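User: Can you help me understand a structure? I only have the sequence.
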Amino acid sequence: MAISAESPASTSRLRPLPGIKVEVAGQAASGCSTTGGEGKASCGSSDGQGDMPAEIWDKVKNHPCYSEEAHHHYARMHVAVAPACNIQCNYCNRKYDCSNESRPGVVSQKLTPDQAVKKVLAVASEIPQMTVLGIAGPGDALANPAKTFETFRQLQEQAPDIKLCLSTNGLALPDYVDEIAKYNVDHVTITINMVDPDVGAQIYPWIFYNHKRIYGREAAEILTERQMLGLEMLTARGILTKINSVLIPGINDEHLYEVNRAVKARGAFLHNIMPLISEAEHGTYFGLNGQRGPTAQELKDVQDACMGGANLMRHCRQCRADAVGLLGEDRSDEFTLDQIEQMDVVYDIEKRRAYQEQVEAERQAQHAAKQSALAEQGADDGMKVLVAVATTGGGKVNQHFGHADEFQIYELTTSSTTFVGHRRVDLYCQGGYGEDEQLPSIVNAINDCHAVLVSKIGACPRDELLAAGIEPVEEYAHEFIEKAALGWFAGYRARVASGEITHIPRGDAAIRQGAFKAA
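Assistant: Let's start by predicting it. Here is the structure, written out as tokens:
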């Protein structure tokens, strides 16, 4: 697949609507960059507060989905109050009581608004760094407007310090922008997979609109017009928008460049291009009919081709509709309704604020360590590598190789560190012993990396990694990730320059199709 970075966006049919001025808090369709000229690889992660207006920074600084840097330190939760959906996607299969899967559309318990609010207060009292509450299904938040907005109404009154978010396919969005603004929902995610109805007809079998089911190209045309209208209306109200797009090889992979330009033109803050989950076990139309998901390199190629358009999010975990905790972890099984009934819930805003001030101090220390390490890199030699990191959070290399069920991937140069994604893997250590049959799949998942940074690693996986050409690194245990990665990178470059080792480009890696949790 080849994508030209010079290709123009084909958005002629999607003209801005009369009377709609596309502007967010003083920045015209520019995402998080104050200049609006270049999309960034990872919004909110490089220059932070100095990279955007103060009112925008205040909205994203502790939002784990809108800032890559924040996602190491702050938690989110979703409440499953919205089971109904008004469209059918070929990649979606909503499942209930599926505790062993981690993907959109899956929940273990559907909640009423009252139950959801009680759960939010319980989680926020136990996890003070939880700053964001989202309604993301398991259907569509705006196909269930009464339940969605009643939940927001109660939370606005009882937990005013928590940011409110919703996710939607956008079909009903124009009808509810006023309600969204009324309840101070200042972050909205819209799933937009196409701006061409011919592409859309391959993704969406039908929509339910104006009390009737509509099929094929006509359905896709209505959907994209409604999505663009809703996005423009949100932008005009100063509500931040994130666009989710599912990368489907052979269907919309080359088209996503046009989607990126179209949503940037209408004021989208972030664009999250994520891989199709297509294992047959999930029971989706695509999965049952052999549609494959992208490789790691294919995903990165599309994301890189979109640089210069809407700013990119690369740290998405494609969360369950009842996820709780830091991105990359799920603590929802600690907060079932039965468990919440036994908890002594005390919602103390001042205690939460004090804890978050400590988190922010740690975050600033991480940022300072990164800048210091970059300053020590020396002259640019043009080298670029990927490294994998095992972490439990806090922005540190603090996880044993055998305990990792995902690795975070960073791209390193002498002038930058860029978070480029994560790779799910099966646990190597199970029941206290290493499962050697898991090693090949783990190696395949990080095969494009030159090194893996861990707090500790056993002899067997160390040997397997070395044989595959991946260097296991323990010496930076418990240091900040970017400082550690740059420290290793400086040493690696020195070894290459001295002739001790030869720099060899790595191959592609396999994105784990599954969202099945490891045992």
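Now, to help you interpret it: DSSP finds 14 helices and 20 strands in the chain. Residues 370 and 483 are 5 Å apart (CA to CA). Let me know which part you'd like to focus on.
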